[in-house]
Specification:
2 helices, 11 strands, about 180 residues, six-stranded antiparallel β-sheet
């Protein structure tokens, strides 16, 4: 009876996970120390006064690093989103380690890129993707800054909603898996 119950429980747990092709996927960065997925859902305010859930690398500690990749989608003519975060201490030179980018799913080419705005309040970004419309692509959010402060990035509120912030935090999905 316990084995049957365990089998049923494990089956229900796996059934609760979205299919792999519909999940944001975490990747550790080569040469960086983090082996822990830093990405979680976090309620963040935006510059227009709206507070919503963002994918964020802040709550687990600013020294953690990694890349989170969205499921693939058909690239629209325009893509807008909000981004918050930092690229090093304010009195130091900017780092290029925290950013959001659009990648061509076939070639791996970077089609658009926006750095963290050095602001806790999420700022609006709009990409004109007319030259790439119709291709398949995915969003990558990278926190590559191992610093102990001012070293995080958060992204959310994608429009059109071809890319969405998941309902379940990436760290919860990993734990369930």
């Amino acid at each position: 009876a316990l084995r049957e119950w365990g089998r049923d429980l494990a089956g229900a747990l796996f059934a609760s996970l979205p299919p792999v092709e519909q999940r944001w996927q975490y990747r550790a960065l080569a040469g960086k120390s983090a082996s822990v997925n830093p990405w979680v859902l976090q309620a963040r305010p935006s510059s227009d006064g709206v507070t919503t859930e963002f994918l964020s690398s802040l709550p687990r500690g600013e020294a953690l690093t990694g890349t989170l990749r969205s499921p693939p989608f058909r690239i629209p003519r325009n893509l807008a989103f909000y981004i918050a975060g930092h690229r090093g201490f304010p009195d130091k030179p900017l780092t290029g380690d925290n950013f959001v980018q659009l990648i061509d799913a076939e070639t791996g080419e970077v089609l658009a890129r926006s750095p963290a705005p050095r602001n806790d309040l999420a700022q609006a970004v709009a990409w004109d993707l007319t030259a790439h419309a119709g291709k398949r692509g995915h969003i990558e959010v990278t926190d590559g800054d191992e610093g102990g402060g001012y070293a995080w990035v958060a992204v959310g509120r994608f429009a059109p909603r071809l890319v969405t912030v998941p309902d379940i935090s990436p760290d919860v999905l990993e734990t369930r898996r």
